[in-house]
Design a protein that fits this description.
It is a single chain. The protein has two domains: 2-168 and 198-236 and 300-315, NAD(P)-binding Rossmann-like Domain (Rossmann fold, 3-Layer(aba) Sandwich), CATH 3.40.50.720; 173-194 and 238-295, no CATH class. Helices cover 41% and strands 15% of the residues. It contains 14 helices and 14 strands. Helix 4 (80-87) runs parallel beside helix 7 (136-150), helix 5 (89-99) runs parallel beside helix 7 (136-150) and helix 10 (240-251) packs across helix 14 (318-330). The chain is globular, with a radius of gyration of 19 Å.
Length: 336
């Protein structure tokens, strides 16, 4: 297949491009001029310069594609408007470009469990549950899904919603834990039990390709609203302490304690992150939005639909995935 990947230079995008090439597909990566391309060229990936935030390059990139994996998006920003501009309006720009080339290719949108919203402890979210995002990020991802749904009678589309994604080359979650791992103590927000679903990036990429190959496509509003939507994870419901223990064991400190802190303790860190962002002109690493997500008791999802319809079988347990991920972080790095 001829494949276009948006967000190809990102964490998930790099792994997906390599997997697609290994499986014999011709891969065209949509990247910005400033994007780090790493080893993708050596892997056999071709590039086209473009940006969903402006629409630049989308028409030319989409001309020959049979599949489009839409991964481009923001996970953090200076405000909700910026998230919406890229995650929702960016999807709209891509859709408009695809509508200009008949017949449109199949689109696989990598969304997020944040678009569905949190779950209840012991009761993971199913695709049939009405979406109830609690953050600006979640609302922007859901808006992107709905834009795709509006045109699904013309553009065959599938949505994949991963929870927390981790693995080699990840640049936010694991690096945030490294100072705590080195100090030998891990922190938890709140005193009650919190549950999470997670997925290794290799398993997520397998699921995305399976969605392209076998995924049922979306139907317009009012007709089987959950069809064509797939939740993926490693299949477990993990307490925060379990995740911390897996991280600590992978780092060689299996007895590192997990220290719970009151939820309000996040606000001094929020103030520092906001100040740093103002001084540097970047996006804050911690926002009120993120604190709102952290306050939820559970972010879990059921994967039975992906197993039945896509043949999705996660290969990475939490323990194996964290161990191999931390082994990667320990290795000497070369600039990319």
């Amino acid at each position: 297949m001829r494949v276009l990947v948006t967000g190809a230079s990102g964490f998930i995008g790099r792994h997906l491009c390599r997997l697609l090439v290994r499986r014999g597909h011709t891969v065209l990566a949509l990247v910005r001029k400033t994007s780090r391309r790493g080893d993708l060229a050596e892997a056999g990936v071709r590039f086209v310069t473009g940006d969903v935030a402006t629409g630049q390059g989308l028409d030319g990139a989409a001309i020959e594609a049979d599949w489009v994996f839409h991964l481009a998006g923001l996970t953090r920003a200076r405000g909700e408007a910026e998230l919406h501009e890229v995650n929702a309006r960016g999807t709209q720009r891509l859709v408009e470009a695809l509508l200009r080339r008949p017949p449109p290719p199949k689109v696989i949108l990598c969304s997020s469990l944040a678009a569905a919203g949190p779950s209840r402890p012991g009761r993971p979210r199913h695709e049939e549950d009405p979406p109830a995002p609690i953050s600006a990020y979640g609302r922007s991802k859901l808006a992107g899904e709905e834009i795709l749904r509006k045109h699904c009678d013309v553009i065959p589309s599938v949505i994949v919603r991963p929870p927390i994604v981790y693995g080699p080359e990840e640049r936010e979650l694991i690096p945030g834990f490294l100072p705590m791992l080195k100090a030998g103590v891990l922190l938890k927000s709140g005193f009650g039990r919190k549950e999470y679903s997670v997925v290794h990036v290799f398993d997520l990429c397998d699921a995305l390709v399976a969605a392209a190959e076998r995924g049922r496509t979306l139907l317009p509003d009012g007709a089987e609203h959950a069809r064509g939507v797939y939740h993926v994870s490693d299949g477990g419901l993990h307490a925060w302490e379990d995740i911390c223990r897996a991280l600590a064991a992978g780092w060689g400190k299996p007895r590192a304690p997990v220290l719970p802190l009151p939820q309000w303790a996040g606000y001094p860190a929020l103030a520092m992150a906001t100040l740093k962002a103002k001084l540097t002109g970047g996006s804050p690493s911690l926002t009120r939005d993120k604190l709102r997500e952290m306050s939820a008791d559970a972010w879990t999802c059921d994967i039975h639909r992906a197993a039945e319809e896509l043949g999705f079988q996660p290969a990475f347990s939490l323990e194996r995935g964290m161990r191999e991920t931390l082994e990667w972080f320990r290795r000497p790095k070369t600039p990319s």
